[in-house]
Every structure is written in C-alpha cells, then in structure tokens.
Fold this sequence. Notes:
The complex is a heterodimer of chains A (199) and B (475).
Chain A: E1 6-14, H1 21-24, H2 44-47, E2 64-67, H3 79-87, E3 91-94, H4 99-107, E4 111-114, H5 117-129, E5 134-138, E6 143-145, E7 151-153, H6 158-166, H7 170-175, H8 178-187
Parallel strand pairs in A: 1-2, 2-3, 3-4
Antiparallel strand pairs in A: 1-5, 5-6, 6-7
Chain B: H1 5-11, E1 14-16, E2 24-27, E3 30-34, H2 39-48, E4 58-61, H3 82-98, E5 102-103, H4 113-119, E6 128-131, E7 145-148, H5 151-160, E8 162-165, E9 169-176, H6 185-196, E10 204-209, H7 211-214, H8 218-226, E11 235-237, H9 242-248, H10 257-267, E12 280-285, E13 292-294, E14 302-304, H11 318-331, E15 346-349, H12 357-367, E16 377-380, H13 385-393, H14 396-403, E17 406-407, E18 428-431, E19 446-449, H15 452-461, H16 467-470
Parallel strand pairs in B: 3-4, 3-6, 4-5, 6-7, 9-10, 9-12, 10-11, 15-16, 15-18, 16-17, 18-19
Antiparallel strand pairs in B: 1-2, 2-8, 13-14
Helix pairs in contact in B: 2-5, 6-8, 12-14, 12-15
Amino acid sequence: MEPITTFAGRAVALPIENIDTDQIIPARFLKVTDKAGLGDALFSDWRANPEFILNQPHAAGAKILVAGHNFGCGSSREHAPWALLGFGFQAVVSTYFADIFRNNALKNGLLPIVVDAATLDQLISMCAEDPDTLLSVDLEQQLLLLPDGRRVPFPIDAFSKHCLIHGVDQLGYLQAQAAAIAAYEARHPDRVNTLAAGA
Amino acid sequence: MPKTLFEKVWDAHVVQAADDQSPATLYIDLHLVHEVTSPQAFTVLRERGLRVRRPDHTVATMDHSTPTTPRGADGTIPVTDAVARKQLEQLVANCREFGIPLFELGTANQGIVHVIGPEQGLTQPGMTIVCGDSHTSTHGAFGALAFGIGTSEVGHVLATQCLLQNKPKTCEIRVEGQLQPGVTAKDIILAIIAEIGVGGGTGYVLEYTGSAIRSLSMEERMTICNMSIEAGARAGLIAPDETTFEWLKGRPHAPKGAAWDQAVAEWRTLPSDPGATYDHTVVLDANTLAPMITYGTNPGMGMPITGRVPSPAAQADHSQRIALDKALQYMGLEPEQALLDHPIDVVFIGSCTNSRITDLRAAADILRGNQVAPGVRVLVVPGSQQVKAQAEAEGLDQVFTAAGAEWREAGCSMCIAMNGDQLQPGQYAVSTSNRNFEGRQGRGGRTFLASPLTAAATAIAGRIADVRELLGVAV
C-alpha cells in the first residue's frame, strides 16, 4: 500500500444517513474474482438517475465523499471500499462509520474521517453552495482543512495511522508474530478439526 | 473481577495483548469461507507464496452466487451464469490448492455458511469464529464470539489464523417475559433493531439475556444473533446452556465421549458472571411484542404489523426526516398508511435468518391445506441440503408444493439476488431475510421483512396479513 500523508481534492456531498454497502455496490457486481473495474459499479443503482450527484461534471476527479451518519452499514463486502477507491475517492467524511466498513476502508488506504454533526452539516452546506469545494487532509496532524481556513481535528487509532503513513502491510505485521501464534497454539488444544475423518 | 461472556471468550483468544500502539492479536478457532469474499484473499496468498496456516480450522461452502433451481438429469445443479460459474470454479481450485475442505454445490452438506457451521457441530461455545460475511454474528447463538470480516482480513486469517482487533464495548439486551402466540424470535430482533436503530450497536458486541431469550430454541437464538449486524453490532452472543448442549450433542464435529463431558464442563463456565457489567443495557418486554414488519429501506424501519407508517413530518431530526421520506418514496408508501392488507407479489421464505428446519415447519403449519393467493410467487428455500433432506423426510416439501409454493435447492437465494433469484422492479415482497435495503432483493424490488409465520399467512392472503387472525388469537 502506498504511504498516505497529505492529500487535497474536491469534495462531493451525499447527505443521506445509513448509506449501506448494497447501495455503494449492489450484490450483482460481487461475482468477480478480482478488483478490476469496481469503480464503474460504485452507487450503480443511484447513478441510473442522471440527477445523481456522482453524475454531475464536478464529481469527476472528486477525492472526498461527505456522507450522512453510519456510512457503510450492512454487509462485509470489501468491494465497497474497492469501488470507492476505484472511482477515485481517498476519504469519506461522516459522523460515524459501520465497524466492518471502517476496518475494510483502513486496510485499503481509504480514510474514514469522523467529524461531529455540526461540522458535517457545514461541509454539506459548503458542497451545496460551491460544487468545487476543496478539502485537504493532513493525516500526520489528523486535520481536515476547510476552505474557510478551519482546521478540524479527527480521530484515528495509532496503529491504523502508523500503517497508512508508512504504508505498513498489516498481513506482514501479523506474520511477524509467528512465534507468538505458535506458542498460543501449543498452549491451547484445538477446538475443532474441519478435516477430521469420520466426522 | 466478574467477566461477561464476551470478555471470557475474548481473553481466552488473545495471542498478543493490545498496547498504546497496536491492537490485540486474536486467535481464530474457526474460519468459514465462501465463494464471494474469498477469491482476492487467495490471490494475495498466491502472490506472496503463503500457505493456509490451519486448513484444519477452515471450511468452505458455496451459497451466495449459487442457483437454487432444480437439479438436471445428472443430479447436479446447473450454473448457467458464466461469471458465477467462474467464481465457483475458482473456489474449488483454491480449496484444492490450499487443502481446505469444501462443501460443493449440491453435495449432501452444502448450504448457507451460517446454517452449515452449526449443523455440522463446527460452531461451538467459547470459540472465535469469523467469515467474510456480516451475518457471521449468527454463530453467537452458541456463546461463540463470531463476526464478519472483509476480504483483507480473510487473507489475514488464512495466512496466520489471527486478526488484529480493537476490543469492542459491550451492550446487554435483556428480553424478559413470554412471547404471545404468533410472535417469534424474528419479531424480537426486529423490535430490538427498531428500538436502537441500524447504527445503535456500532462499536458494541451485544449479549442477549433474560427469560425470553433463555426459553428460545437454538434455531430461534440463531435468528436473533443473525441480525445483530442489522443494529450495527458485529457480534451478538447468547450464553450457552442445556438447550445449547442438547442441540450440539451428536453432531458430526461435536466432541465425543470423554471429550464431550470435558467440553460441556468448560462451556458451563462461559456465561457472564454475576455482577459483570456492560457498557450499556437495553431492556425489552417480550409479553407486549406483536408480529413485526418493516416499512422502509433499512431493518430499523420496523413496527408492529398493526401499526401505521410513520410520517417524515413528525420526525424531530432533519436527517431522519430526509431518510424516511426517501425510504417511503422508494417503497411507494404514504405516511400514516396501514400495512395490513397491502398487496404483495412475492413471498420469500429462506436466508441465514430463517431457513432452518423449525422455520420451515412453522411456515408449513400455516400453509398446510391452504393455497397461495393467485398471482403471488412463493419461494421456499431451505438453508442447507441437510435441512432440505430433513424437510422432505417430514413431507414439508409436499405441503409447500401442494399450496402452490416453489420448493428449491439450498442457498442464499433471493436474500442477496446475485444468483438468479430476484424481484422485478416495483415488485413487493414479504421476506424472512434480513435486509430491506433498496434493491437488495433485486433492482427496484421492495421488501417487507417479517417472520416465517407472517410470510406464510401473507402468502395465503396475497396481502400483508396478521398471522394471529389465522391462529385465532385475539389481537
């Protein structure tokens, strides 16, 4: 994964709460065995409407999605962050994220930025007034920078931040614990054997 | 210090404790794999030259993209969708290459991943269980810590049998009292989600407690835990008890002989200690619950079946007003409208929420000797080949087909609508599944979530029906 420190880009607002992963990418697009082309399927059913925000000219090249609370609820499909990244988004701003979506996003370098409800409302108004609203993100400082000069701090757990900034691969980090894992297995008898014959 | 069930299971699986800089490393006892969320994880293993650390802690099945159409002359289930077929073939190849046992489409033990785990006795109390599927919470019914993960994490577990996890908070959902006739476990969980909302459980692991929960069968407990994720909670647990042990005993992978006695003795230590505390508690009265139905486009938009659709104008919160307005527009419903007698096109009985033998028995009891209303399509989809065989041995398939319903092969079917089973745009369905999101059951399809009893009663009426009337229960 490429290290992420700072980035800036146009923001697009989708002021709807509880946007579920079936909207982000409908299940019929999950029959693939790779990640190619999923950006085209992002919000596929909503994009059937020409008025939909992502069909507007200013959405092309947008990097930050501003969305209502509980973004990414529903299924565990990692195709949701893959599709958002495939479209070009690098961050989603909301008041909170569904747990599995947040985990999946962080593992792929899509930054879930949590702000309070008042800030979210302001961001939504800003995007409505100026479709070319530019936001920038400073991950090191954990700041979302608004066009009016405001610097909005956002939380992120230390480990995810470290992984994103340094491009650390979490699988590699886990593999490095091989000795501890082996020791755990030695101390704990297996609870199940899926390969057991005669079962 | 007294511990909750969750804390006991968590503590027993910590390989490396969390510190200021990193989350805990948690050992996973059982990894369930299916065709949709695993291919890209196997690709990572292949790219890095890694093996599956514990194929003996891993099991795969086919369920999401599999058709549920009748078998061909050769006894196999034909997969006509070329993209789905490639995905299924990929799973076969991956399992072969990495030595993972696989229940292939149409074979005796194949079925929905959350039906077969318990059925095979693989799901046991005190375990950690994961799967690339959000309804992995189902297995919490056995007192296991079970939760859905993404494909990156599927790769982590395949390669290391471990996950990096931040410890969630705990929430007790206490349900006391006794359900009235016609009211089911599905209605309990729909009522809970209506109460706390689809985001109410975010960041929490739920533990369901109370007399109403204790009196439920294992299948009913699975229905409850299954939908924990619909409240935003990755996991939902129920303490193991005699009901759990009795259900598990003798299942293919359950411990045998002395090992069984030893396991039960250990499992008896799992329930939350007296005095253990939760970060949050919600209390529900089972006595006053009615059959529930959803009216909107998320599982939190639910109400008693005799209720009226809420009005967006009456919502205090601006964001909720917009969401409800959008939902009602999609559903083609008016504020203050009753849902009873609303015409429907399709009834779907199935999914990892309600496709087990007791669900099918309940639906069959309503349909027996009755006819599905003209013009209504009814799909009954068993959760596994084992459930299908059991239902056929009991003659339930005959009840369904005699009533005019379709009796199909096992799989996720119309709950996920990526396998050929789907609603047409604009159609209304009463479904026993778990999600009423826009387009979930097919693009433009409109879903009312309800219990198998409500679904069966609705199938006969052709309109949303209160099963209590059929049962002769005073409402």
